[in-house]
Amino acid sequence: MKRSLVALAVLGLGASLAQAQEVIKLGVAAPLTGTQAHLGKDIENGVRLALDEYNAKGVTLGGKKVKFELQAEDDQADPKTATTVAQRLADSGVKGVVGHLNSGASIPASRIYNEAGLPQVSPASTNPKLTQQGFKATFRTIANDVQQGLAIGKYAATKLGKKVALIDDRTAYGQGLADEVEKAVKANGGSLTGREFTSDKATDFLAILTRIKAQNPDVIVYSGMDTQAGPMLKQIKQLGINAKFITGDGGCTGEVIKLAGDAIGGSAYCTQPGLPLDKMPGGKNFNERFKKRFNADVQIYAPYSYDAASAIIEAMKAANSADPAKYAPAIGKVNFPGVIGTVAFDAKGDIKDGAVTVYQFKSGKWEAVQ
After folding, report:
1. Is the N-terminal amide bond of 100 cis, ω within 30° of 0?
2. CB neighbours of residue 291 within 10 Å
3. Which family does it belong to (predicted)?
4. CA-CA distances (angstroms) from residue 134 to 106, 323, 331?
């Protein structure tokens, strides 16, 4: 009889503890299907790892132990779908959002989050306009395209050749980055032989590249994603164009190496905002934990999404509340050692001291050169 009473008491205690634990939902929005799903999943997994680890350590807000849960939404890398996803997240009661991948998705979605009073921290959207809208709870953990465009344009014009051909995919990301590259090429003594554009759905670039071949550039800069950069490299080789090739973070992936095959060689370069994973202060340890949890390699954005989720939770802890109205102002004041380095934001919501790294394709992989 006593054992039964003890068992019931333990069960009752367990039930009361479960009831006392408040569930807090965070949203993540990224392309989880389609050609960019590998990058979207990278973002989702970075957030998932952060929530797992905070839950394991235990977080108490307002005197209650809380448990973080993730609501992942597929924006399909599409601006219209992104606004639908943003509204769904706002309506579902999430307390903050990590996302989106694409600037073309983040910018329209940010207006919805702003109207709902919902903090948004993007780990990947680099278009400067995202944080120039005056929204008080819009942040990013990655360097913007002013910084990255300057790095690409300067490296192209001073290290690779003075005559530069520029192609962009006409998305908010691609066109915005290309605009900054163009400025930097000219500011560093280079000249544009021509500027072409395609779309983020295209696979045939022969007409564009034939026009570029006639211009005889030293360098081709592509501003877009890896799913276009890979086939483009193949067609550059097919046409016998000898120009060097450089692309931004959207094409600075392992996927572009697979898609390009033997068409990628020592004359291919790319950039990524931030330091190489093995040079990030918390990169090596993060990579080990990530691989153990997901049995997958980090693509690009997982460290940035991990730190984005951490910034939200650290702000909640500072405000002692998960109420967005109470903790949102604290995001702008966070200052903690993240995977990528110190996580702190400027007055606009951009990450402070955002670095950019240039890589060259060598020995079957991207190797940092500057």
Report:
1. yes
2. 12
3. Belongs to the leucine-binding protein family.
4. 14, 21, 15
Distance CA 100, CA 121 (A): 8
Q: Is 285 found in the same domain as 139?
A: yes
79 and 6, same structural domain? yes
Task: Read off the pLDDT band of 15 (50, 70, 90).
Answer: very low
At residue 8, the pLDDT reads 44
Tokens of 216: 């005889």
Residue-wise burial string across 193-229, b where 16 or more C-beta atoms lie within 10 A, e elsewhere: bebbbbebebeebeebbeebbebebbbbbbbbbbbbb
Instruction: Determine the 3-state secondary structure of 24 from DSSP.
Output: strand
141 Cα distance to chain centroid: 8
Q: Residue 95: name the closest of 110, 77, 115, 113 by CA.
A: 113
Buried b (16+ CB within 10 A) or exposed e, 57-91: eebebeeeebebebebbbbbbbbebbbebbeebbe
Same domain, 266 and 291: no
- Which residues fall within 8 angstroms of residue 55, CB to CB, at 6 or more apart? 67, 68
Calpha distance 313→43 (Å, rounded)? 17
Query: Domain holding 39: CATH number?
Result: 3.40.50.2300
**pTM for this structure?**
0.85
Neighbours of 258 (CB within 10 A): 11
Other CB atoms within a 10 A radius of the CB of residue 326 amount to 14
Per-residue pLDDT tens for 266-313? 899 999 988 999 999 999 999 999 999 999 999 999 999 999 999 999
How big is the chain by its Cα radius of gyration, in Å? 22
Residues 134 and 159 in one domain: no
Q: Report the alpha-carbon distance of residue 249 to residue 227 in Å, rounded.
A: 12
Instruction: Identify the pLDDT of residue 17.
Output: 46
**Same domain, yes or no, for 30 and 89?**
yes
What integer pLDDT is reported at residue 20 of this predicted model? 61
**149 inside domain:** yes
